[in-house]
Structures are given as structure tokens and as C-alpha cells.
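Dear all,

This email documents one entry for the complex benchmark we are building for the journal club exercise. For each entry we list the sequence lines for every component of the assembly. Then comes the predicted three-dimensional structure of the complex as a C-alpha cell string, followed by one or two observations. Please use this as the template for your own entries, and keep the labels exactly as they appear.
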Amino acid sequence: MPQKRNAKRRSECPLNVSVEMLGDRWSLLIIRDMMLREFRTYKQFMECYEGIATNILADRLRRLTANGIVTAAPDPRDGRKLNYQLTAKGIGLAPVLTEMVLWAAAHEDTGNQALVQLMRADKKGFLAGVRKGWEERKAEERKSTGS
Amino acid sequence: MPQKRNAKRRSECPLNVSVEMLGDRWSLLIIRDMMLREFRTYKQFMECYEGIATNILADRLRRLTANGIVTAAPDPRDGRKLNYQLTAKGIGLAPVLTEMVLWAAAHEDTGNQALVQLMRADKKGFLAGVRKGWEERKAEERKSTGS
DNA sequence: CATATTACTTGTTAAATGCAAGTGAAAAAT
DNA sequence: ATTTTTCACTTGCATTTAACAAGTAATATG
């Protein structure tokens, strides 16, 4: 990995590197939707985010993959499709995203109030559910890929 | 303010608008440092972030102010200085930042492990401390500005 | 009153993003 | 079997945003 100009400062304080990974208009949304809406394919992201450019989506997925937040595997049932999945590191962002959604809900008028209520009422349970869903999807993938 | 192309999608799901506010390389770092390192002035940010451009810093502070995350008030003791402060909305981001720091610390090697330990060991207490510090600073400001 | 600080602004250049069109491989339809 | 679709992209170009260097206005300090 090549050192950048500001390498010295990078790890001086926690967050600097993370913000390099996540500090853009799309990455967090992509992660949110993989986590909460079970998005897996390029097409799903593309159709959902009005405004994202196709090359940018490709680039963000590549970067998330390079940063170990996401993996990509071809769909065993359809060779055209690539299934994107969160890694353990990626699902580890669930508390961050949850707090962010709660903050957002407190200060913007957002949709999906049901989800927000659930997060507020039982944050721990919600996070456990998110992780469970993720583990199920991973298990499913392992099965279909052939153990 | 002109409506943007993707205005329709903006509030459909929580987070979209927030990511518009915070989804860039600097905003979250600025907020972190106002929260955790008590940064107040333009100069402090400028000296700390190797790599930030002066016009971009000015723009980010302006945007954070416009979004109600930060306020700016002239220093009563030095008319050149502007003191930036987090608003209630801004300090509301403390849980987000905290989770982000914890995530970052788990996946990068970061400095300030003492802080990280504290966050991990007693998250609630840590957050209470952050809020208390913020309230003290606000009280102080009220006093010096003249009640 | 000269010099220094602070918080910027104003160009200009470089990089990132947005947009339209196109590509190649695999699947579905005819 | 071959044409048409679908999917996951890439490529080229226009536009926007960010980085860098320099300058400015309003204090403050010596």
C-alpha cells in the first residue's frame, strides 16, 4: 500500500483513515442498504440511488471491497450476477449506521419510522437482529456456493 | 435554494439528507475535534488537518453552520477570532462519532488508545462526559459574551 | 505606527464526479 | 441456433468540486 503525503497524520487520531474510506456521498448509503435492505447486486444499487453515476457505483464497490468492508462473489444460479456481501468488518459498522439513522430521524423528517421506532425502543435487540440476518445470508451463500 | 435533481429521493429513507451534510472528507473530522479536542477556531482546524485547503475549511464551517450543527460567535477578548461551537444538534452526533471511533480503532491502528479504552469500558459515562464538557463550554461562552 | 495574527477570499490548476454511450459475457426468448 | 435481454460494468467527455498559492480586511501587538 503506497504511503500518501499525509501519511504521518493518518493514524495519529482514530477516524482519519475511516473517513478516507467512508467520507463520501455514497459509501455509507451502500453499506446501509446492504445491511438494512439486503441489497446485493449492482443493479439494485443503481436503480435505488437516483443520481449515482454508474462508474462511481463501480468505483465505490471496488473501494469498499479493497478496504475489506465488502466481498463480491458470482451468483451460482446466474453467472451474470455478482453478489455483494458485507464482511465482518462491514457489519461491524451497524452501530455507526444505527446511531446515524437515529440522529437523522431526530433532525430530518425521514421515511421508515417503523424502523426508527424499533431502533430507539430496543437498540441492542435491533443490532442483534441485523447481525443475525447477516449471518443467515452468509450461511446461505456458503451452502449454494458448495461447501 | 434550488431543488436538486434527486430531491424526490432525499427524505425517502433516513440518512440520505445526513449523508449530504456529512458525507465528505472533512465534516466528520471537524465535528470530532470540536467534540473531543475542544477545537474552536479556524486556525486550530487549519493547523491540525494537513491537507485541508483553506477555502474548503471555510466552506465546510459555513455549511455546518448553515445546517445548524455549528454556531460561530466572535471572541469577546479578541475581535479577530471567531469561536465555533457545536449546537445541540451537533453534539447529538456524539454517539455516531463514538461508534465510528470504536469501529475505526478495531480495524486500523490508531493513536489515543486511552480514549478508545474509555469509550469501550464505559460508553454511557463517556457520552455523558462529552455532553457535560459541551454544556460547560456553552455556559462559559454565555458568561463572557455578557448575559 | 509598523508588524503580526486571524479568518478568510480569489484566482488557477488538478482531481473527482456526472452523464451518455458502448462492451462482453451469460441467460432468455424466439 | 440465433437473436434479444439482462447484468455488470468501461470509456470518453463535460461539469463540478477540491487543492494549492497568493492576497485582503479587520483586529491586535510591540
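Observations: The first strand of chain A starts at residue 70 and ends at 75. Chain A has one domain: 13-145.
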